[in-house]
Design goal:
The chain is an alpha+beta fold. It has one domain: Peroxisomal Thiolase, Chain A, domain 1. The protein has nine helices and six strands, in the order H-H-E-E-H-E-H-H-E-H-H-H-H-E-E. Helix 1 packs across helix 6 and helix 5 packs across helix 6.
Protein backbone atom coordinates (compact mmCIF):
# COMPACT_ATOMS: atom_id res chain seq x y z
CA UNK A 1 0.00 0.00 0.00
CA UNK A 2 2.78 2.42 0.95
CA UNK A 3 6.55 2.04 0.87
CA UNK A 4 7.66 1.31 4.44
CA UNK A 5 10.97 -0.34 3.68
CA UNK A 6 12.98 -1.21 0.62
CA UNK A 7 13.02 -4.80 -0.61
CA UNK A 8 15.19 -6.41 -3.24
CA UNK A 9 12.57 -7.01 -5.95
CA UNK A 10 13.93 -10.35 -7.13
CA UNK A 11 14.25 -11.64 -3.59
CA UNK A 12 10.74 -10.45 -2.79
CA UNK A 13 9.24 -12.22 -5.81
CA UNK A 14 11.25 -15.37 -5.07
CA UNK A 15 9.92 -15.34 -1.51
CA UNK A 16 6.35 -15.00 -2.80
CA UNK A 17 6.99 -18.06 -4.98
CA UNK A 18 8.25 -19.92 -1.92
CA UNK A 19 5.08 -18.99 -0.01
CA UNK A 20 3.00 -20.31 -2.90
CA UNK A 21 4.89 -23.59 -3.10
CA UNK A 22 4.60 -24.10 0.68
CA UNK A 23 0.83 -23.67 0.54
CA UNK A 24 0.45 -26.04 -2.40
CA UNK A 25 2.64 -28.61 -0.67
CA UNK A 26 0.66 -28.31 2.57
CA UNK A 27 -2.61 -28.71 0.67
CA UNK A 28 -1.57 -32.17 -0.50
CA UNK A 29 -1.88 -33.35 3.12
CA UNK A 30 -5.43 -31.97 3.42
CA UNK A 31 -8.14 -34.27 1.99
CA UNK A 32 -10.51 -31.31 1.66
CA UNK A 33 -8.11 -29.06 -0.24
CA UNK A 34 -9.02 -28.09 -3.79
CA UNK A 35 -5.47 -28.26 -5.17
CA UNK A 36 -4.29 -31.51 -3.57
CA UNK A 37 -3.90 -33.12 -7.03
CA UNK A 38 -2.63 -29.99 -8.77
CA UNK A 39 1.01 -29.48 -9.74
CA UNK A 40 2.81 -26.38 -8.50
CA UNK A 41 6.49 -26.68 -7.68
CA UNK A 42 8.78 -23.90 -6.54
CA UNK A 43 10.28 -23.72 -10.04
CA UNK A 44 6.82 -23.37 -11.58
CA UNK A 45 5.78 -20.70 -9.07
CA UNK A 46 9.03 -18.83 -9.72
CA UNK A 47 8.45 -18.78 -13.48
CA UNK A 48 5.86 -16.08 -14.02
CA UNK A 49 4.49 -14.71 -17.26
CA UNK A 50 4.28 -18.09 -18.98
CA UNK A 51 1.33 -19.94 -20.49
CA UNK A 52 0.99 -22.10 -17.39
CA UNK A 53 1.62 -19.28 -14.88
CA UNK A 54 0.37 -16.07 -16.49
CA UNK A 55 0.40 -12.65 -14.86
CA UNK A 56 -2.94 -11.77 -13.28
CA UNK A 57 -2.29 -8.27 -12.01
CA UNK A 58 0.91 -6.27 -11.71
CA UNK A 59 3.73 -8.65 -10.82
CA UNK A 60 1.43 -11.28 -9.34
CA UNK A 61 0.85 -14.40 -11.41
CA UNK A 62 -1.62 -17.23 -11.16
CA UNK A 63 0.58 -19.01 -8.60
CA UNK A 64 0.28 -15.98 -6.31
CA UNK A 65 -3.52 -16.04 -6.20
CA UNK A 66 -6.00 -18.00 -4.09
CA UNK A 67 -8.49 -20.38 -5.66
CA UNK A 68 -12.15 -19.42 -5.59
CA UNK A 69 -13.95 -22.56 -4.53
CA UNK A 70 -17.16 -23.96 -3.10
CA UNK A 71 -17.32 -24.75 0.58
CA UNK A 72 -19.39 -24.68 3.70
CA UNK A 73 -18.50 -24.77 7.38
CA UNK A 74 -20.38 -24.55 10.65
CA UNK A 75 -18.87 -23.33 13.89
CA UNK A 76 -20.89 -23.84 17.08
CA UNK A 77 -19.99 -21.56 19.97
CA UNK A 78 -21.04 -22.42 23.51
CA UNK A 79 -20.63 -20.69 26.87
CA UNK A 80 -18.55 -22.30 29.59
CA UNK A 81 -21.74 -22.95 31.56
CA UNK A 82 -23.45 -24.67 28.63
CA UNK A 83 -20.37 -26.79 27.99
CA UNK A 84 -20.20 -27.75 31.67
CA UNK A 85 -23.86 -28.79 31.78
CA UNK A 86 -23.45 -30.89 28.63
CA UNK A 87 -20.29 -32.56 29.80
CA UNK A 88 -18.20 -31.00 27.04
CA UNK A 89 -14.87 -31.03 28.81
CA UNK A 90 -11.34 -30.53 27.54
CA UNK A 91 -12.57 -28.90 24.35
CA UNK A 92 -10.63 -26.11 22.60
CA UNK A 93 -11.77 -22.62 23.54
CA UNK A 94 -11.45 -19.13 22.10
CA UNK A 95 -8.78 -17.56 24.29
CA UNK A 96 -8.71 -14.16 22.64
CA UNK A 97 -9.86 -12.10 19.69
CA UNK A 98 -9.22 -8.84 17.90
CA UNK A 99 -11.19 -6.71 15.43
CA UNK A 100 -10.21 -3.51 13.66
CA UNK A 101 -11.48 -1.60 10.67
CA UNK A 102 -9.59 0.68 8.32
CA UNK A 103 -10.81 3.41 5.97
CA UNK A 104 -12.50 2.00 2.90
CA UNK A 105 -10.92 4.38 0.38
CA UNK A 106 -7.32 3.83 -0.66
CA UNK A 107 -6.21 7.47 -0.27
CA UNK A 108 -7.61 7.57 3.27
CA UNK A 109 -5.77 4.34 4.09
CA UNK A 110 -2.53 5.95 2.90
CA UNK A 111 -3.16 9.05 5.00
CA UNK A 112 -3.92 7.05 8.15
CA UNK A 113 -0.96 4.74 7.52
CA UNK A 114 1.71 7.41 7.28
CA UNK A 115 3.24 6.92 10.75
CA UNK A 116 3.27 3.12 11.05
CA UNK A 117 6.18 0.78 10.39
CA UNK A 118 3.69 -1.85 9.17
CA UNK A 119 2.25 -2.08 5.67
CA UNK A 120 -1.07 -3.06 7.27
CA UNK A 121 -1.07 -1.36 10.70
CA UNK A 122 -4.74 -2.16 11.33
CA UNK A 123 -3.96 -5.84 10.93
CA UNK A 124 -1.08 -5.55 13.38
CA UNK A 125 -3.32 -3.77 15.92
CA UNK A 126 -5.88 -6.57 15.56
CA UNK A 127 -3.23 -9.21 16.26
CA UNK A 128 -1.95 -7.27 19.28
CA UNK A 129 -5.51 -6.99 20.63
CA UNK A 130 -5.87 -10.77 20.39
CA UNK A 131 -2.55 -11.35 22.15
CA UNK A 132 -3.58 -9.01 24.98
CA UNK A 133 -7.01 -10.57 25.43
CA UNK A 134 -5.60 -14.08 25.45
CA UNK A 135 -2.68 -13.26 27.72
CA UNK A 136 -0.40 -14.94 25.18
CA UNK A 137 2.47 -13.82 22.97
CA UNK A 138 3.73 -14.97 19.61
CA UNK A 139 6.01 -17.40 21.46
CA UNK A 140 2.91 -19.25 22.73
CA UNK A 141 1.31 -19.74 19.30
CA UNK A 142 2.12 -23.08 17.71
CA UNK A 143 0.34 -22.72 14.35
CA UNK A 144 -1.15 -19.93 12.23
CA UNK A 145 -3.87 -19.81 9.61
CA UNK A 146 -3.87 -16.62 7.56
CA UNK A 147 -5.92 -15.04 4.79
CA UNK A 148 -3.56 -15.58 1.87
CA UNK A 149 -5.85 -14.27 -0.83
CA UNK A 150 -2.52 -13.44 -2.48
CA UNK A 151 1.02 -14.43 -1.56
CA UNK A 152 1.72 -10.76 -0.82
CA UNK A 153 -1.05 -10.83 1.80
CA UNK A 154 0.66 -13.69 3.63
CA UNK A 155 3.97 -11.86 3.34
CA UNK A 156 2.50 -8.82 5.13
CA UNK A 157 0.82 -11.06 7.74
CA UNK A 158 4.17 -12.51 8.84
CA UNK A 159 5.29 -9.30 10.55
CA UNK A 160 1.74 -8.54 11.69
CA UNK A 161 1.78 -11.84 13.61
CA UNK A 162 5.11 -10.87 15.14
CA UNK A 163 7.04 -13.65 13.41
CA UNK A 164 9.48 -11.02 12.15
CA UNK A 165 10.10 -7.32 12.31
CA UNK A 166 8.62 -5.23 9.48
CA UNK A 167 10.92 -5.47 6.50
CA UNK A 168 12.41 -8.75 7.75
CA UNK A 169 9.62 -11.08 6.62
CA UNK A 170 12.06 -12.82 4.29
CA UNK A 171 13.91 -14.21 7.32
CA UNK A 172 10.85 -16.17 8.47
CA UNK A 173 10.22 -17.43 4.94
CA UNK A 174 13.75 -18.37 3.88
CA UNK A 175 14.71 -19.92 7.23
CA UNK A 176 11.88 -22.45 6.94
CA UNK A 177 10.14 -21.09 10.05
CA UNK A 178 6.70 -20.94 8.38
CA UNK A 179 6.95 -24.29 6.60
CA UNK A 180 5.03 -27.34 7.83
CA UNK A 181 8.15 -28.65 9.55
CA UNK A 182 9.15 -25.20 10.86
CA UNK A 183 8.87 -23.78 14.35
CA UNK A 184 5.88 -21.58 13.42
CA UNK A 185 3.90 -23.29 10.61
CA UNK A 186 1.62 -21.00 8.62
CA UNK A 187 -1.35 -22.47 6.73
CA UNK A 188 -0.74 -26.18 7.29
CA UNK A 189 -4.21 -26.62 5.76
CA UNK A 190 -2.93 -25.19 2.49
CA UNK A 191 -4.48 -21.80 3.12
CA UNK A 192 -6.67 -20.00 0.61
CA UNK A 193 -4.08 -20.65 -2.10
CA UNK A 194 -3.89 -24.40 -1.58
CA UNK A 195 -7.09 -25.29 0.21
CA UNK A 196 -9.34 -22.85 -1.66
CA UNK A 197 -11.16 -19.60 -0.95
CA UNK A 198 -14.90 -20.12 -0.38
CA UNK A 199 -15.57 -16.38 -0.23
CA UNK A 200 -17.71 -15.60 2.79
CA UNK A 201 -16.80 -18.85 4.54
CA UNK A 202 -13.00 -18.62 4.62
CA UNK A 203 -12.81 -17.07 8.09
CA UNK A 204 -15.00 -19.78 9.59
CA UNK A 205 -12.94 -22.43 7.79
CA UNK A 206 -9.75 -21.05 9.31
CA UNK A 207 -11.35 -21.04 12.76
CA UNK A 208 -12.35 -24.67 12.26
CA UNK A 209 -8.83 -25.60 11.18
CA UNK A 210 -7.44 -23.91 14.29
CA UNK A 211 -9.87 -26.00 16.36
CA UNK A 212 -8.79 -29.17 14.58
CA UNK A 213 -5.12 -28.41 15.18
CA UNK A 214 -5.40 -27.83 18.93
CA UNK A 215 -7.86 -30.73 19.30
CA UNK A 216 -5.40 -33.04 17.56
CA UNK A 217 -7.93 -33.79 14.81
CA UNK A 218 -6.13 -32.42 11.73
CA UNK A 219 -5.03 -35.79 10.40
CA UNK A 220 -2.16 -35.75 7.94
CA UNK A 221 -1.69 -32.00 8.30
CA UNK A 222 -1.61 -32.09 12.10
CA UNK A 223 1.10 -29.91 13.65
CA UNK A 224 2.61 -31.95 16.51
CA UNK A 225 1.73 -30.83 20.04
CA UNK A 226 -0.25 -27.79 18.92
CA UNK A 227 -1.83 -26.11 21.96
CA UNK A 228 -2.58 -22.62 20.64
CA UNK A 229 -3.50 -21.51 17.14
CA UNK A 230 -4.09 -18.06 15.67
CA UNK A 231 -6.14 -17.17 12.61
CA UNK A 232 -6.30 -13.92 10.66
CA UNK A 233 -9.14 -13.04 8.32
CA UNK A 234 -9.07 -9.81 6.33
CA UNK A 235 -11.35 -8.25 3.74
CA UNK A 236 -11.34 -5.29 1.40
CA UNK A 237 -7.58 -4.58 1.41
CA UNK A 238 -7.56 -4.90 5.22
CA UNK A 239 -10.63 -2.70 5.61
CA UNK A 240 -11.85 -5.35 8.05
CA UNK A 241 -9.54 -7.45 10.21
CA UNK A 242 -10.45 -10.34 12.51
CA UNK A 243 -8.12 -12.45 14.62
CA UNK A 244 -8.97 -15.34 16.92
CA UNK A 245 -6.76 -17.36 19.23
CA UNK A 246 -8.01 -20.92 19.76
CA UNK A 247 -6.35 -23.04 22.37
CA UNK A 248 -6.49 -25.79 24.91
CA UNK A 249 -5.04 -26.25 28.35
CA UNK A 250 -3.96 -29.85 27.71
Amino acid sequence: MILKYRLDEKRFMDDLALISSINYQNAKRNPLAQTRKWFMSLDQASTRGTETNPYIGGRLASSDCSQVTDGAVVVVLASKEFARRRGLVHKPVIKGYGHRTAPLLFDKKILENRESRYVLPWTRHTVVDAYHRSGLTVDDIDVFETHDCFTSSEYAAISAFGLSEPGKEFEAIESGMISFEGSKPVNPSGGLIGCGHPVGASGARMLLDCYKQVAGEAGDYQVPDARNAMMLNIGGSATTNYVYVVGTDK
